């Protein structure tokens, strides 16, 4: 049956690569991926999947389902297809979406025999307001037995960790005045933002080493001779767990309040993007994926340990069902994500071929789990333990 999966994916490889290239050449920002969503959903429908578009009123989201009609597990393949501002597909999402769709099509070729359900989740805007967050909150993964996706990279990495994240905006409201003639009449909102940065820098000494706090000033005044009456800063606050991220956010908010008190400004805070939870990798499921890699000659010493590459909205999914997020080698050069060099490398034929290989690995990993009930039970037991430990 694995040979049938491989043959099916190979039989559609040129179409899958064409769609990936099209999405790569037509990058769209998060929640604006209309071209990509249209191509992806039509492709899934052509393979017999039932597609629901605009899930949770998110226009470019979708869920595609193929139900064998026989009892069996439900597997989710997750597709991302948003691009980065100015850089385009420098994170390789044009590959990710077709890795998952290729895997779903391959697995479908044997599903009527083994039983179960395949779902492909089209999840817009991973780079900003990731759709996996509201999907998780709405319970759309609660009946999924396990979820799979893979990420392109310059090397192989086991599914590892990601950082929980909050995106916080700080708005300070002051009072304008002539900066030379009557500065004493003003209340300087920019001073409040600068004090906020200084306070956060002082705070770092008392934080764990896994914490990342980084921000920008998006509004700092209109002219040098006017006391700024409005200033805005946006920060990402991250750590290895949701619980500690919440603690750090509380400390950062106190820094912000202190800056307002010192300057006489009023403060308004908000979340300008969704909060992401940490990735809870299911090690049992990860081991199944790695064994399939090894069957193709990718030795254990070629697969690096999982690293922290920032934050993923997949983290929210991983708290609702067993999940993995391995990294797959698609280029030879050591180019990091979110760079023009990686973007360009991920458009080459080598990367497109690696995309097809990854689709095969995802598909046969799902096949292994769906045809071995004892393995699925072990995966679920590990998941329950990890969730219990996280809550405690």
From TrEMBL:
Listed GO CC annotations: cytoplasm
Keywords: Hydrolase
Domain of life where this protein originates: Bacteria
Segments passing through the bilayer: none
Record Pfam families: M20_dimer
Molecular function (Gene Ontology), one example: para-aminobenzoyl-glutamate hydrolase activity
Every Peptidase M20 dimerisation domain range: 173-258
GO biological process: folic acid catabolic process
Family listed: Belongs to the peptidase M20A family.
Name listed for the protein in its UniProt record: Peptidase M20 domain-containing protein 2
UniProt source species: Paenibacillus lutrae
Lineage: Bacteria, Bacillati, Bacillota, Bacilli, Bacillales
């Amino acid at each position: 049956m694995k040979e049938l999966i491989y043959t099916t994916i190979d039989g559609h490889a040129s179409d899958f690569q064409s769609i990936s290239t099209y999405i790569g050449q037509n990058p769209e920002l998060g929640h604006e991926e209309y071209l990509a969503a249209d191509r992806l959903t039509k492709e899934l429908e052509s393979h017999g999947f039932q597609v629901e578009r605009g899930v949770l009123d998110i226009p470019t989201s979708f869920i595609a389902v193929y139900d064998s009609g026989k009892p069996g597990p439900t597997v989710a393949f997750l597709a991302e297809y948003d691009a980065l501002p100015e850089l385009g597909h420098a994170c390789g999402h044009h590959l990710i979406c077709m890795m998952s769709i290729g895997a779903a099509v391959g697995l479908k070729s044997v599903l009527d025999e083994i039983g179960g359900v395949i779902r492909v989740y089209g999840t817009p805007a991973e780079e900003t307001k990731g759709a996996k967050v509201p999907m998780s909150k709405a319970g759309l993964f609660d009946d999924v037995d396990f979820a799979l996706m893979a990420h392109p990279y310059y090397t192989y990495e086991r599914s590892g960790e990601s950082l929980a994240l909050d995106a916080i905006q700080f708005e300070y409201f002051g009072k304008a005045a002539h900066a030379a003639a009557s500065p004493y009449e003003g209340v300087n909102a920019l001073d409040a933002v600068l004090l906020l940065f200084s306070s956060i820098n002082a705070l770092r000494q008392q934080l764990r080493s896994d914490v990342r706090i980084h921000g920008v000033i998006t509004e700092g005044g209109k002219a040098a001779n006017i006391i700024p009456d409005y200033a805005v800063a946006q920060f990402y606050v991250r750590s290895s767990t949701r619980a500690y991220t919440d603690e750090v956010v509380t400390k950062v908010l106190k820094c912000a309040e202190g800056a307002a008190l010192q300057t006489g400004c009023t403060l308004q805070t908000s979340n300008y993007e969704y909060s992401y939870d940490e990735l809870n990798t299911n090690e049992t499921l990860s081991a199944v994926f790695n064994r399939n890699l090894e069957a193709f000659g990718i030795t254990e010493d070629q697969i690096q340990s999982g690293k922290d590459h920032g934050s993923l909205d997949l983290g929210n999914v991983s708290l609702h069902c067993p999940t993995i997020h391995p990294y797959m080698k698609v280029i030879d050069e050591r180019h990091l994500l979110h760079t023009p060099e990686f973007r360009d490398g991920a458009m080459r034929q080598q990367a497109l071929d690696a995309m097809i290989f990854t689709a095969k690995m995802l598909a046969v990993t799902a096949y292994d789990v769906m045809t071995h009930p004892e393995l699925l039970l072990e995966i679920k037991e590990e998941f329950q333990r990890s969730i219990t430990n996280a809550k405690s």
